[in-house]
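agent: user wants the structure for LacI family DNA-binding transcriptional regulator from Bifidobacterium saimiriisciurei. delegating to structure tool.
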Amino acid sequence: MPRSRPCRLPVVSTANRWTSSACCVRFGERYRFNGFLSRPMAAAVRSTTMSESTKVTIRDVAREAGVSPTTVSRALSKPGRVNLETATKVREVAERLGYRTKNLEPRQDDALRGMILTTTSDLKYSVFADFVDGMQHPCIERGFILLTALTEEKRNLERSTIMRMSTQVDGLVLTSSRLSDSTIRKAAQVRPTVVVNRLVNGVQSVVCDDRPSLTAVVRRLKALGHESVTYIAGPESSWQNGLRWQALLSACQKERMRLRQIPGPQVFDEEAMRESYAAFFDNPTTAVILFNDIFALQFLDVLTAHGVSVPEQVSVVGIDDTTAGTRSTPTLSSIHIPRGRMGTQAATKLIGKLLHIDDGDSTPIVSYSTFVERGSIGPASAEPIV
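agent: tool returned. relaying tokens verbatim.
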């Protein structure tokens, strides 16, 4: 008499756990997460009691998943019309019950974890927080968790973060990345990737064109009688820094204004900023444009410490249009960048790729900045700065 084989129940892992070293905190603080998409063991056991010959209907799937038949239909044929958690639950139930339809095809989103990683330099600067805030809304709407890793302007930290996390998340949004184009392209080969404030060939980009607003700044300064401008640059690794310099160079040439560049600090550090600004007094100009509002606000303090009045002796313009600039004395003229909208566009584009509802257009998404004039600029002064 042949041996009877023991009945084996299907084994389904309920762990699906991972450890993240970056979830809205700096590296070094570790957290554990449980994958909310893992299939319960009890469900696997129940599936063994069903007869394979039983014809499963869409109502059976709806009843088991706790949703309406209409929701089941949408989840299986048009998953973009329901949130991620519902779509995944319905597809898992349909698969477990043996429900088949000609529209049910294997999809990559079957394995989605429901998590997106964004990297950013530092949330203490409101600019980066605005981008992240914009990303959060479409993530919540579609049932994704947004994880934020702080890279502190360090390439090695950004690279290692992406390498360690890319296997644990569904996609990446890289904000003002300092990585090389080739490194970003490699990351995009592992996980769907969108870059913000950066153009990378072959990778979806969301950028802001500052050229029209910088041209408007130069024209306004020219109208106020300024003949020379100093640009205090940002980090050398910043893609935006190079574009802003080229835009200013072109605008000043058209307006026949003298333009010089002073290397700015490579990190957002007050002492480094003061050291960079010292070079301005060797050959001062009546107008100064700085890489961002952080630099500009610190420069206002330095000018005050040297007894230089703004805008009576020097006109100052920042870039980013932060809240802090509206509270300074004088209020800071700046260039407004629609950061929240850009963050939303980046997350929406990435989620569209993940859920296969994207239109497939990889053309860069371009927004435009605007010049906001406030109290920090005025007519050029003939009084020399000592």
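agent: one observation worth passing along. The CA atoms of residues 206 and 346 lie 6 Å apart.
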